[in-house]
Predict the 3D structure of the following.
Amino acid sequence: MCARVRGWLLDLYEDASDGLCLWFITETGARLRLKQKMEVIFYASGESEQLRALWKFLRRHSEVLDLQRETRRDAFIPEPIVVLKAVIDSPVNETRLFREVQQRFPRLTYYDSDISSNIRHAARYGTFPMAFCDIEYDDKNSIQSLKTLNSRWDLSPVLPVLRSLTLEPDCDPTRNEPSTISVQFKQRKQTLSLKSAGELIHRLNGILHEIDPDLILTSWGDTWLIPQLLMLAEKAGEKLCLNRDERRGVRWQKALTYFSYGQIIYRPEEAHLFGRCHIDVRSAMMWRDYGLDGVLESARVTASPIEKAARVSPGSGISAMQMLTALEKNILVPWHKQQVEAFKDGMDLIHRDRGGLIYQPIVGLHTDVAQIDFISMYPAIIIKGNISPEVPLPNGIVPASDELGVVPLTLKPLYEKRVALKLRCGQLKKNSRLAKRESARASALKWLLVVCFGFLGYKNARFGRIEAHEAVTNGGREVLIKAKEVAEAMGFEVLQLFVDALWLKKKGAVTKDDFQDVLAEISAQTGLGVSLDGVYRWVAFLPSRTDERIPIANRYFGVFQDGTLKVRGIEARRRDTPPWVAETQTSMLACLSRAGSVNDLPAAIQNAFSVFQNALASFRAGKVPLEKLVVTARISHELENYRSPTPGARAAMQMYAQTGKRTRPGQKMRFIYTCGTPNVRAWETAGQIKFEDIDRMKYTELLARAACSVLHPFGIDDLQLKKWAHTATIDLELNLPRKGYRVRKIFNHDRPLGVTGAAGTGGYIA
Amino acid sequence: MNIERSFISGDTPGFPLPNGLLVVFGRHGGADLMLDLAARLSMNGHLYLLDCGNRSNIYRVAKTLHTLTNDPVTKLKNIHLSRAFTCYQVTALLEKLAFGTEKVPVLVLDLLTTFMDESVQLAESRMLFDHALENLLRISQSMPVVVSAKPLLSISSPRLSLLEELKSHAFQVWEESVLPAPRSAAVQLPLLVDF
C-alpha cells in the first residue's frame, strides 16, 4: 500500500541500514522521515592488469552489485577512455569499500568516487534543499518514486514556513562565564539558568519537543554552547534531544585550518544535526553578509545541505555545482586532478600570467566623475569566452569551441539568476522586507560568482586549470583596454582603471544621462554588460602614505549625487582597525558627504575636523569604551614559528601563557594596545584594564592616520595633523571657511603636455 | 656521500653542474638562488624549471639575465616552466620528464610544499613522494637535477622525514646558513616629471 505526499526536502543524509534518510516538510505542515535505497557508481582507469586485479577484488564483495567495462569521457583527456564501472549498493558501503580499494590499488585513477550523497541524489532526482517534491512511499516509509516539481533556478520559489529556534548564551563565552542561555521562538523568549543541569536539560528537551524546530540558530553553538549542553546533559543523566532523528547523536566535524585567497582561515569544530539544521551564526561564513535567506539560496543552487552551505566557503559551493554539472553531462569527476600545466617558456609566462589590468588613478580631488562597472566581469568572460579546463581556450573572449565546457555550463544559469534578481531588487521598495530578502539571495549568488574565477586556479579544484585562470584575466585585460579606447574616442578622460571598473569624466558630463551613450558603446563593443555605479559629486583618489607622488589603486572615497558615500582602501574598510577609529573616520566622511557641492566642502571639512577633535578629546578624557579600542588580527602561523611576532601574535602568546588557550593559525585574536612590555593585552584575558594602561600614543596615532586619509585631499598636511593630534600645541590652520585657500584646488582634468595615458602612469597634483 | 656546505646570497653552485641530485635547502625554498641559477643555466641552453611552491618569479630571472646578456628574451625562451600545485601533479610532472626524451638540466623549486598538504593522507603523500624521488633519481643519472626545499613547519612534523630522505639521496646539499642581509627599501622614481 503506497501513500503519496507533496513536500519540501529539508535534510538528506546517509544511513547504514536505510541507504538514505530524507526529511520532508509536507504541504500539511507535517515533518516526515522517509528512506530510500540509492546505488552508487565509481569508476577506475589505468593499466589493464591493475584493472583486472581490481575487478577480481571487487567481485568478491556482496555489496558490489555490478561490474562492467565501459568507455567514458575524462574531461582532461581528448579521447574517451576505458574504465571499470563498479556499482555499489549504498553510499555508506561505497565510502568504506573505496577507502580499501584506493589503498590496495594506488596506481589506478579513480572517478566519481568521493561525491557526496546530496550531489549524487541531485544529479539523479533533481533534488536540492527546499526542493518541492512529489513522493510516493510504502508502509515501511520507503520511497517508491520521487519527482522534483521545481528547479534550483526558480526566481520565486515557494517555501514552507520554517520553525526556527534561537539559542544563545548571555555573554561571549570566550571572555566571560555565561550564567544563562536565552531560548527564542518567534516572539517567545525564555531564559534558562545554566546552574542546574537537570532542570536546564529537562526544560530544553520540553521546548524542543513542543516546538520541533527545523532550524536551531545558535551563537557560539559549535565552539561552546552545544558541547556545554551535551556535557550538562551527561551530568544530569538525561539525553538531550537536539536531533529530530532520535537514533542519532550530534555529528562533529573536526576543526580545520586552511589557506583561502592568501589568508589562513580557521574553521572551528562543527556540530551537525540529523533531521533539522544547526547553524552557529558566529561561525557561519557569510551570515553577516546575507543571513538565512542567503544561506537557503546558496544551499538551493549548490544542492548542498543547509548546514554545510552556511559554513563552507563559496568555493566549496562552486565545486559542488561543477560536480553536479559533470554528473548530469556524463563527464567523469576525477578523484584527484593529475593533469599538469603544459610547459611554457619564460616569455610566455610573462605574457600570460599578468592578472587584472590596473591603470593607476590620477591622485587628487575630482568632480563629476562616473564609475562604470562591468557586471560580474569574470563570470561573464568565462561564459562568453567558453573558458573551461577541458575545452580549447580562447585568445581574448571569442570562444574557441562551440560546445560549452563544465565551468561555463555551471555558471550560466547562476549568472542569469543573479542578474534577474538584481533587476528585481531595483524595482522593489528600498529597505522593504522583500527587497532585503531578494538582496540577500542576490548576494549569496554574487559570492559564488566572485569565487568562480579564483577557483579555476585553485589547486584542489576538480575542474581547475591554471591556463584557464590566465585566459580569464587575459580576457579581462582586453575588455578593459577596449572600454578605455571607446571612452577616450568619445572624449572622456579615464581617471582610473581597476580590473573591471572605469572612472570617467568629461567637461559638461554631470548627470547619469550624460554617460548613457558611452555605456551603450562599451557594452556594444565588448559584448559584456556594464552598469553605471553612479556619478560622483566629487571623488578623492589617495596617494601612497610613504610617498605622496605615488598613486595607489583602489584607495579612494567619494560622494555620489544622491549623497551616498563610497569608500575603498582606507581605515574604515580594514578589519584590523579599532571600532573607535573606524567610526570616527566614517563620521568624518559623513560630514563631507553632506556637502551638496564642492562649494560647500570648506564648511564640511571644518565639521569633519570637529568630529576628529571631539573624538580625541573623548579619548583623552577616558570616555571611549574599551571594546571600541579592540584591534582584531588574524594569526597566520603556529605561535612558535613567529620570528618577529606581530602584536596579534604577542597577544596570542600572552593568552596561551596565562590560560593555556592556544590560538591556531587562521583564528582571529582580539587585543588592546597597552603601555609597557608586551605592549598588547589579549582582550579575552584583559579583565579590568585601567585607562592609564592604554597606549594612548598608539591610539592617537591610529586616529590621526585615519583623519589624514580623509583630510589629505583637501590640502591638510599629514605631518602637521599628526603632530597636532599628539601634542595639541601646534597651531594648525584649520579654520577652513575663512582660510579657503587651504582647500586644494579641484583638479581640472588637464594633463600636462607630453603626458600620455599609458597604463601604470598617473598624474601628480601639486 | 653527502657534502654539506653553506651558501650565502649571490653564491650559486659551481658550473658546469655535474649529473646527479643536488639539494638546495634554504628559507623560501631557496627561491632566489634557484631563479638566479635558472638564469645562468639558460645562458647555456634549455632547461626545465618545475615550480612546486608557486615561487617562479620570472621577473627576477629576467632581471638577472639583463646583467648577463643583451638578449634576455632569447634566453628566457630557453626556460621551460611548469607549475604544480598538488603532489599528484608533481608526481605526474616528474614521471613525464623521467620518461621524456629531452636531456636538459632540471630545476625543481620548493619540491616538498605540496607533499605537506594535510588534505592528502600521510601514507598517500609518502607513496607519491617515493615515486617522485624515484623519478628524480632516474633523471639525475643523465642530467643535473637541482631540487630546492625549505625548512618545514612544526605543523608538518609527521612528514619531516621526507626532507631527510630527499637530502640523503643527494650527492650534495647546499644549506642556507647565512641569511642574506635585509634589502634596503625600494625607492620608486617619480612617474612623471614634477610640474
Q: What stands out?
A: Chain B touches chain A at residues 42, 48, 56, 58-59, 61-62, 73, 75-86, 88-89, 92-93, 96, 114, 119, 123-124, 127, 153-155, 188, 190-192, 194-195 (CB under 8 Å). The beta strands of chain B are 3-7, 20-25, 47-51, 79-83, 106-109, 144-149, 172-176. The mean pLDDT of chain B is 81.
